Amino acid sequence: MAIVNRIADYAEEMKVWRRHLHRHPELQFDCHKTAAYVVARLREFGIDEIHEGIATSGVVAIINGQGAGPTIGLRADMDALPILETTGADHASTVEGKMHACGHDGHTTMLLGAAKYLAETRNFAGRVALIFQPAEEGGGGAAVMVDEGVLDRFDIGSVFALHNAPGSPVGHFYTTPGPIMAAADTFEIHIKGSGGHGAMPHETADPVVAAVAIVSAIQTIVSRNHYALNDLVISVTQIHTGSADNIVPETAYICGTVRTFDATVQAMVIDRMQAIVDGQAAAYGVQAILDFQKGYPATINHPEEAAFAAGVAAEIVGDAAVTPEAGREMGAEDFSYMLEKRRGAYLFIGNGDSAGLHHPAYDFADDAAPVGASFFARLVERAQPAG
After folding, report:
1. Residue 201: what are its φ and ψ, rounded to 5°?
2. Residue 288: which domain range?
3. Quick one: 269 and 335 in the same domain?
4. DSSP code of 17?
């Protein structure tokens, strides 16, 4: 493994950064203390420009290289999750009910390591824009940064990001050209009937049987309404109704998630779900309202940039440790908003045999940080060579 030697020298320092961030998690857009810690490190490195307060608590920092050239963007997310940590680690969260269960502390650390190296060496042309983003976990912080004009304001021509991957060995990378993560939508169905005594259901309009029928019919969208080779997931994840064994309730509530890669598939799901809700409501004599909320769009890598990034990763860890066409996953990621506006790619870096993402026993592998930082640094030097 050819980790950049200078970055290897930072390994212990990076561990200190990462574990500090892990002890002090913040949620959504409220990443002010995290951002302050990031800014303090960037100032120590001698970064040329630091812009704070973007998307509430985001940071964009600029490093100037040698001579004229484009600006390449490198993004790391900073926010944690509302999960009670169970790792028992010495560096465990000190904030009750919050923890870095998705490794954003590690993502931030990798970008800080790259920043320190690039500020020291400046062996590249043009500029690097370091994007430290809040609110990836459900807040759409990337969309807010894009809407606030970050890509245009800093003339960012391409963007790249890394995410850790539990179960993949430390020092391994994988990505894929084209779609790599799915669009993530949420649906809610509110059913209103007429309640009454459980012994006299003929005097009610029962929302329970309507809810059961709607859930059963929704399953047929995947099995009967779409081409089997087009990836689609529809999961009903909640049904709430009733309060006693002998009362027919007034209302029922259903919600779930839809994952797609293709806008036409997404549109078909919305149309079919609406038809099912309307039809079943009429059949059971209840009122039902579908609230379909579009979430993060699909994360779609640009093929040339994905291949280039995979090649850079191979320089760091060797060809055998890089999978350039790993296929796509049904998870979602708001880096998709940046890739909608600029060319670039999203890659995964191995986190070893750790607990899974969003698990209370998860912890980022500190050994992965110098590998990721080396990738970011070498990516800049290869994309925008000096001289």
Report:
1. -65, -20
2. 183-293
3. no
4. H
